[in-house]
Write a structure and sequence with these properties.
- This protein is an alpha/beta fold.
- It has 2 domains: 288 residues, Alpha-Beta Barrel (TIM Barrel), CATH 3.20.20; 102 residues, Golgi alpha-mannosidase II (Immunoglobulin-like).
- It contains 10 helices and 18 strands.
- The strands form 3 sheets. Strands 3-2-1-9-7-6-5-4 form an 8-stranded parallel sheet.
- It is globular.
């Protein structure tokens, strides 16, 4: 497996904070399910903010304009003073920050290190009352042997600050057994949930490789994480790809950006994170910390902003995806992702459905997520491939009817007056339809 980060610093940590639109529209926050701030939101975040010499209000407004709710600064911003400056700028720009702080590193690296309660409380007191603060980075991609120690660290943060979530991000399934420390990916996810007892689960998957797309890893991971988090009744987030790494990952196209976000939506993800925003230097600005492994050296390229801070074509592609996905994701808050089915060439490959909608046609390669709320259903139909068009007809149960086109992107109905008929989904395209029972 080729990891994209050193052991703690996350291009992958999902965060929980976003500004929620006011008013009475369907995207308004559904409150009251959690006491932890923003756990009931759909969140878009990104790792690797501006380098230290570019940390200013103009750059933070540029992050907000990209449709990013929360930034994980990194890229040289790792201590209390630097993070507090980032928080001030984020507040002015209308976004939030999940800071990485080197004070926590020693306690998350090795099992058996005694926790410094006073140091953790000092860190909590530095951040917890700031309006732009999102949560605490604990650890990225731990092996399972660290789960008991991380549980203790997690609990210490939660006791000191019950209103903010400590974040631990997990490996994808293509990590090797030594990296996982578990017999397989499902066991790894289950052991983490049972041991740490988190309020959310975050993992990363970078499927757009050189030269192939790792479809099997992508969909199997979504299926496993969805299944295990539903059993635990917690939401999940996925960090996804918005840059290239020489010899490992390619720079996504617009269709590949949309494919990532729309298939995650269909599987019920409640947050998305981009790796990366600002293309980092080869060491990501990470200084060696005693007790931590050395920074991973990689040739990053093609992020939303290049290494010199110039916008790349990916900036506009991700902004478009963020504006679409943010609205679509908020529109699914309060809905239960009850069923997911994946079809290839019109044949059911895995999963199931509530029999409301069955896509048919030999070009129907799709993911169909069915969300329930009382007697209503919202069905997310997304192209399951990022390089070819999907064409389908909807075979709708006779007891149900389409009542609303919720939203769509790169989705073309065969007849704009007949939403229950044929559809063409361009590569990465998706449509969300609402159904009600026939009276």
């Amino acid at each position: 497996m080729k990891t994209s980060l050193s052991t703690l610093i996350p291009g992958m940590l999902i965060i929980l904070c976003t500004a929620c639109p006011s008013g009475n529209d369907e995207s308004t926050k559904q409150s009251g399910q959690h006491q932890v701030e923003m756990l009931d939101e759909f969140v878009i975040t990104a790792y690797s903010g501006p380098p230290l010499e570019e940390v200013n209000i103009e750059r933070y407004r540029e992050i907000a304009y990209a449709g990013i709710d929360v930034i994980v600064p990194g890229n040289g911003t790792f201590d209390g003073g630097q993070n507090l400056k980032a928080l001030e700028l984020a507040q002015q720009a209308g976004i939030r920050v999940l800071p990485i702080d080197t004070r926590v590193m020693p306690f998350a690296q090795t099992a058996g290190i005694s926790l410094d309660t006073a140091l953790i409380e000092e860190m909590v007191n530095d951040y917890k009352d700031h309006p732009a603060f999102a949560g605490y980075v604990i650890r990225d991609e731990p092996d399972a042997s660290l789960f008991p120690a991380l549980r203790d660290l997690y609990n210490l943060f939660r006791e000191a600050d019950p209103g903010h979530e400590p974040f631990i991000n997990l490996f994808p399934s293509y990590a090797n057994p030594t990296q996982l420390g578990s017999v397989d990916f499902r066991s790894h996810i289950r052991e983490f949930i049972e041991t740490v007892n988190p309020d959310l689960l975050s993992y990363d998957n970078y499927a757009l490789r050189e030269p192939d797309t790792w479809y099997d890893y992508w969909f199997s991971d979504l299926d496993v994480v969805r299944d295990e988090t539903r059993k635990a009744n917690i939401p999940f987030w996925v960090f996804i790809q918005s840059e290239g790494i020489r010899e490992h990952m390619r720079v996504p196209t617009r269709a590949e950006i949309l494919w990532q976000v729309n298939t995650c939506l269909a599987y019920g993800a409640r947050g998305l994170g981009w790796f990366t925003y600002w293309t980092p230097e080869v060491d990501q600005g990470i200084q060696q910390v005693e007790g931590a492994p050395p920074p991973l050296i990689e040739q990053h390229y093609g992020g939303m902003l290049d290494v010199d801070g110039n916008r790349t074509p990916l900036y506009d592609h991700v902004r478009e995806a963020n504006l679409y996905t943010g609205k679509a994701g908020r529109g699914l808050i309060g809905w239960d992702n009850a069923f997911v089915a994946r079809y290839e060439d019109g044949k059911l490959l895995e999963g199931g459905s509530s029999l409301i909608v069955t896509p048919v046609g030999d070009q129907a390669h799709l993911v169909v997520g069915t969300f329930t709320q009382d007697d209503k259903r919202r069905v997310v139909i997304s192209n399951s491939r990022c390089e070819t068009t999907a064409r389908l007809s909807l075979d709708i149960s006779p007891d149900w009817q389409v009542v609303k086109l919720v939203t769509s992107i790169d989705a073309i109905p065969g007849n704009a007056q007949e939403l229950d008929g044929q559809w063409t989904l361009e590569a990465g395209g998706s449509v969300i339809l609402e159904f009600k029972p026939k009276s």
